[in-house]
Amino acid sequence: MDIEKCTGCGDCSGVLINEYHKPKEKDGLLWVDRIHIDEAACIHCGECVRACLSENPEAPAMTNISFNRIKEALNEAASVENPSLLQEILRMSVNERMNFWEEQFKKCIKCYGCIEMCPVYLEPPEELAFDRWVRKAEIPPQYPAFHLLRAYHVLDTCVLCGECESTCPVRIPLKTLQDITQYFPPERVFDLVPGLNDELKNVIKNFATKVRNQVRRMDYAV
Amino acid sequence: MRFDMILTTCPFCGTGCNLYLEVVDNEIVGVSPAKEHPVSRGRLCVLGRNAHRFVSHPERLKKPLKKVNGKFVEINWNEAIKEIASRLQHVKESYGPDAIGILSSAKCTNEENYLMMKFARAVIGTNNIDHCARLCHSSTVSGLAASFGAGAMTNSIPEIPDTDCMLITGSNPTSQHPIISAWMMEAKERGAKLIVIDPRKVPISQFADLYLPIKPGTNIALFNGIAKVIIDRNLADMDFVSSRTEGFDEFIEKVRDFDLNTVSEVTGVDPKLIEEAALMYGSSEKAMIFYAMGITQHISGTDNVRTIANLAMLTGNVGRPSTGVNPLRGQNNVQGACDMGALPNVLTRYRPVTDELARKEFEALWGVTLPPNVGLTLTEMTNAAYEGNLKAMLIMGENPAVTDPNLNHVKAGLRNLEFLVVIDIFLTETAQLADFVLPAATFAEKNGTFTNTDRRVQLVNKAVDPVGEARADWEIICMLANAMTSNGFDFSSPEEIMKEIREVTPQYRGITYERLRKGESLQWPCPDETHPGTPYLHKDGFPRGKGKFFAVDHKEAHELPDENYPFILTTGRVPFHWHSGSVTRRIESLNKEVPTGTVDINEEDAKILGIHDGDVVSISSRRGTIKVQARISKAIKKGIVFVPMHFVECAVNELTDNKYLDPIAKIPELKVTAVNLRKEN
Ligand code: SF4
Ligand code: SF4
Ligand code: SF4
Fold first, then answer.
1. Interface of B with A in 585-624 (CB under 8 A)
2. Of A162, A165, B280, B661, which has the most beta carbons under 10 Å away?
3. CA B209-B211-B215 angle, 5° bins
4. Distances (CA, A) of B452 to B187, B301, B341, B455
5. pTM score, two decimals?
6. CB of B289 within 8 A of CB of B222?
7. From the alpha carbon of B46, which atom of ligand 2 is closest?
8. What DSSP state is assigned to residue B609?
């Protein structure tokens, strides 16, 4: 297709479905669909929620779906019957969380897929570069350092699309990790994903403070 | 500006993941995983995600090269083909066809391997054709052919999560077949048991219910010991044994008197662990065995494979989903290269060259007379070159000057040739020794098919034009054959070559490009165009009729440690590089992760020798010495050291031995070499 003529209308995604271009292939074939957007077609940047809240503080009508989901997760952490993963993590003790994440992270084969497939990943800030904190050539990479660093590399850009999780060969719940790092301040994150050394904790905290005004989602965290 | 997404198959390991190459105006800008693919499911390992990064590397060969006074000069294709054809013809006429040896390639497509074996047999008139499967799974082919009658993975990758027990031995799937290891972890999360047998605590052993640290080269003793426990505890599936197998009486005779304490002495594994492993494997309803180089690369390789087949038959773990004997094949198309008969003893479909009927069939189709004697294997070819009996070699997409055992000997052999032609994408260490080098196209620049480890025949689709004047290997072979005035090489596309392959290979008969383009995922055997392919083999019977038990004895590795060479060296791969490194070492992101080789040394051994992490040590065997940085590790057994094979500056194959081979498969013992270590100052 000719990119220069593409207006991004998305019509092609309807037209192009035939026996070679199966509809279930959301990502591979269609330019406009390169970024997988969730059911609600929401990019979760928080802008709309913020705008909507300021216009209509009583009954925000916009796509504050994730905001509500996180709030629900917190409120119902103790009561729901089929808790989401995030709810389960919130209910765990620190030790249980430690074990939970260890079981997950030690599966990592360091394929860098969570980075390659991320639509918003750019060169990370120098103080959070892998070179400084993560030994090379090791599998699994040091955890939770590798995974938290990656999550904080996209602190101000993550759109919560979930591509990182869906491309992870060993099915680490990276979207949940994104929810946690996006909606909770670092101190809380270090409690929900325990085990990071103090030096790195401080560097991350300082970094988060620096970009704080670009991370509007955190305004809604509880 | 044009933008296309080209679906193709990963060019690295035998898992056979599919991916899209993102192409903007004839340039590949990225890789995107294919979510609809049954094996990779939208996931890739670090190699697949970097699969595009070598295609337009500046060091790609762009023109044919000829060595003049020790230096390469560029020449045009016509001249190159004409000169090569006439020099091959000359060697053939002066010394006979068997003075020429040909190496085909497990990196190339099925179509190219088929053509190369046709070239060797029909044009040159020799069975001296082989490829790197000799160094990896030749003992699987010979071992499983003897036990079952077919040398391939019996079951499928997507069946893994439904198994009850996985026994992984001599394989490091996390590094070598990362996407398969991801399936294994899924099985584990669903509650399957995991037994890992390996001298190194490979990463997947962190998840193991049982980990057996075995001494390299003692597999037969261990598996016979496990079989003995299974029989003693009445866990054998006697219905299966009596209805589907033969040779059980001799087998039981052999293992009956086994004593676990002796097995433990030989293997270095605690008898309790052996017993537990036997109970775990033997009492599982569905159990899968996975193995790789730790089983095959021994002088007892064929017998090792047979003892594994014994275990599976003993417990009835063959011919059902989520069971079986599952060799994990290394190269993207090593299964295909073997299927296509790029081997010195068989034609396609594994029909022996010594079988007159088989030869007649091919002779009728090709219109030539075929040589009836078994040809030289890859390991024998370099020896013959060294001794001067082999005069010329044609090598396509292989780099024996890094990957073959006893490199100094290999290189001397190659130098000793009168005439060497190499077809490759880079000026590899082997190509540097050649008289002519022909520039080939990469997987992204040609069409064809690869067959992955679970017998899935998959399309390779051209995404961009070849760089410079590079040509697809199949075109090069056709040009050479035509220049040697041979008929039967007028193909205009790989699809046409596939038509001929299907004619002579019943397992592939139903596999057409059309079906593959429609997105069907077909595993051979697929005998006709309505057949859906075969996810698991031996359902109702074995190709050889009954499965055969082999009563085999433990055989010591040839080169055991002694006073002068007290350590056992074992070789292998790291997850960030591929084989001789000619591709992956040119990919910056991978090189940054692992820039050079290291030697893994057990921490206690290191303490005794006064070696610290990062020290440079020299490792010597009876054949050579290399210098390499030490990495102190708890993950390796005492007395054993590990060096990866990718790095030419510390080429571990300078140490390995090429003389002592498995008597049937002719595979060298790459997993056991006696060495000593010395700290460098
Ligand atoms: S959800 Fe994952 S892939 Fe998507 S933007 Fe955030 S970090 Fe990137
Ligand atoms: S995608 Fe998964 S396995 Fe790959 S590096 Fe990221 S977390 Fe690790
Ligand atoms: S697992 Fe093998 S086939 Fe799959 S992406 Fe990695 S190297 Fe390629």
1. 589, 592-594
2. B661
3. 165
4. 21, 22, 16, 5
5. 0.86
6. no
7. 4
8. H
- Chain A nearest CA to B83, separation (Å): 44
Residue identified by tokens 């103090």 is A198
Residue B71 DSSP SS3: strand
- Which residues from chain B sit within 8 angstroms of residue A1, using beta carbons? 2-4
Counting ligands in written order, which one lies closest to the CA of residue A178? 1
Burial (CB count within 10 angstroms: exposed 0-12, middle 13-18, buried 19+), residue A157: middle
Question: Would the pLDDT of B229 be above 80?
Answer: yes
Structure-token pair, residue A20: 């070679």
Question: Which residues from chain A sit within 8 angstroms of residue B37, using beta carbons?
Answer: none
Strand B547-548 and strand B245-246: pairing?
Answer: parallel
Does B185 sit within 8 Å of A111, measured CB to CB? no
Contacts of residue A177, defined as CB under 8 A and 6 or more positions apart, other chains included, come to A147, A148, A151, A193
Over the stretch B18-53, which tens digit does the pLDDT of each residue have?
999 999 999 999 999 998 899 999 899 999 999 998
Residue owning the nearest CA to atom 7 of ligand 1: A158
The 10 Å Cβ neighbour count of residue A100 is: 17
Which has the higher per-residue pLDDT, B331 or A55?
B331
Please give the average pLDDT of every successive group of 10 residues along chain A, which has 222 residues. 49 48 39 34 47 50 48 57 78 93 94 91 90 89 95 89 90 93 90 94 92 69 50
Which structure tokens are listed for B70?
Answer: 């020790």
Structure tokens that stand for B86 in this block = 């006439």
Q: Which helix (H) or strand (E) holds B288?
A: strand B287-291
At B375, which amino acid appears? G
Cβ atoms within 10 A of the Cβ of B107, count?
Answer: 30
Distance (Å, whole) CA B357 – CA B666: 26
Ligand 1: which atom is nearest the Cα of residue A114? 3
> Residue A114: its chain B contacts at CB < 8 A?
none
Q: CB-hemisphere CA count at 13 Å for A139?
A: 26
Task: Kindly provide the ipTM of the predicted complex, given to two decimals.
Answer: 0.85
Residue closest by Cα to atom 5 of ligand 3 = B48
Distance A194 CA to ligand 1 centre (A): 21
What are the b/e assignments for A183-199, b being 16+ CB within 10 Å? Answer: bbebeebbebbbbbeee
Q: What is the mean pLDDT of residues B446-455?
A: 94
> What would the pLDDT profile of B287-329 be if each residue is shown by its tens digit?
999 998 888 887 778 888 999 999 999 999 999 999 999 999 8
β-strand B18-24 against B27-33: which pairing, if any?
A: antiparallel
Q: What is the pLDDT of residues B605-651, one digit of tens each?
A: 999 999 999 899 999 999 889 999 999 988 888 999 999 888 888 88
Rounded mean pLDDT of B132-138? 81
Contact A109/B178, CB-based, under 8 Å? yes
Q: What is the mean pLDDT of residues B82-103?
A: 95
Q: What is the mean pLDDT of residues B85-106?
A: 94
Phi-psi region of B331 (alpha: psi -120 to 50; beta: other; left: phi over 0): beta
